[in-house]
Amino acid sequence: MIASHATPLGLSASLRRDPLVLDGRGTPRQLRCRVLQSPLAGVSDRIFRSLVRRWAPDALLFTEMVNATSLELGHGVQKVEELGSESGPIGVQLFDHRPAAMADAARRAEAAGAFLIDINMGCPVKKIARKGGGSGLIRDPHLAARIVEAVAAAVAIPVTVKTRLGWCGSDADPVSWCRQLQDAGAQLLTLHGRTREQGFRGRADWGAIAAVKRALTIPVVANGDVNTPEGALHCLAATGCDGLMVGRGSMGAPWLVGQIDAALSGQPIPPTPGAAERIALAAEQLQALVAAKGDHGLLIARKHMGWTCTGFPGAPQLRHDLMRAPTPAEALALLERARQSL
């Protein structure tokens, strides 16, 4: 059980109550929840989002990253087209190094019902950065600005950017970098407190995020090491940011966004699910993935079950067995036996 925070430390009343308004270019959007769920490649699919939504009905969620060139070729279309079947605000995050392709993909996403367009300029994966996408754009700020300008001109909904402090520690100048993105037309910036070189190693530099927040006039959302409601409160107090984005901390914990939102709002924090609830959640997610993907759904579900089934007696052996279950039926039987043994 997580203790409730009746009075969030260092948070203004406006941050707790007022929606965050993004004007767009004719289609304004309001963020009623100041906690965002990060796009997570191979994780934040429609089924995962539906679980996060259970605890955080108003939070801005995102599709997995969508490559603009691939979308142009007909790949990844489902990630965009399935938006219409979901409730609550869902943004589409795009990545590429071609301004025209990014603009075209943004128009498609807007037509499909995207709440806003987010441009990924922070993904540290080598195969993406090497081609000039994701964090690779940090090394080409002129191209990065052209992409923001092209996307902002292509759609009426708001355009935002997710990025990092810099390419590496020796040349990082996050204030200048983020100002360029703001000047190019970004209406909100999510800043991960590490460089591309760091990846996910070390601690996020909340002080550097605070410096960017002080320098910019657009809203800034802090990202990095936001893994608990208590940590979230400390992050906001340290950075002065307008909101938070939860990333890897929600893998296996779709309740985390809702818990942090409650902490920021001064409301009772929903309890962390216990063993029986975790097992039931893992079974539900497995069944949904198999219904959507066939037997391939089991392969996708394995990592989710591994993240979710933790923190209770017998969990290590259960995870071991689940990773080796050859069929969905056998995986469900393992989960049921684990539930009965509690």
Task: List its salient traits.
TIM Barrel; single chain; globular; nine-stranded parallel beta sheet; 342 residues; alpha/beta; 2 domains; disordered N terminus
Could you write a compact summary of the structure shown?
Helices cover 45% and strands 12% of the residues. The protein is built from 15 helices and eleven strands.
* Count of extended strands: 11
CATH architecture verdict of the largest domain: Alpha-Beta Barrel
The class by helix and strand makeup works out as alpha/beta
Low-confidence stretches are 1-7
Mean pLDDT: 92
- Oligomer state equals single chain
CATH topology of the largest domain: TIM Barrel
Task: Please write the string of helix (H) and strand (E) elements.
Answer: HEEEHEEHHEHEHHEHEHEHEHHHHH
Counting structural domains, the number is: 2
What are the SSEs and their pairings?
Blueprint: H1 13-17, E1 20-22, E2 29-31, E3 35-37, H2 46-55, E4 61-62, E5 66-67, H3 68-72, H4 77-81, E6 90-95, H5 99-112, E7 117-121, H6 126-129, H7 141-154, E8 159-164, H8 174-184, E9 189-192, H9 206-215, E10 220-223, H10 229-239, E11 243-246, H11 256-265, H12 275-293, H13 296-308, H14 315-324, H15 328-340
Parallel strand pairs: 3-11, 4-6, 5-6, 6-7, 7-8, 8-9, 9-10, 10-11
Antiparallel strand pairs: 1-2
Helix pairs in contact: 2-11, 5-7, 7-8, 8-9, 10-11, 12-13, 12-15, 13-14
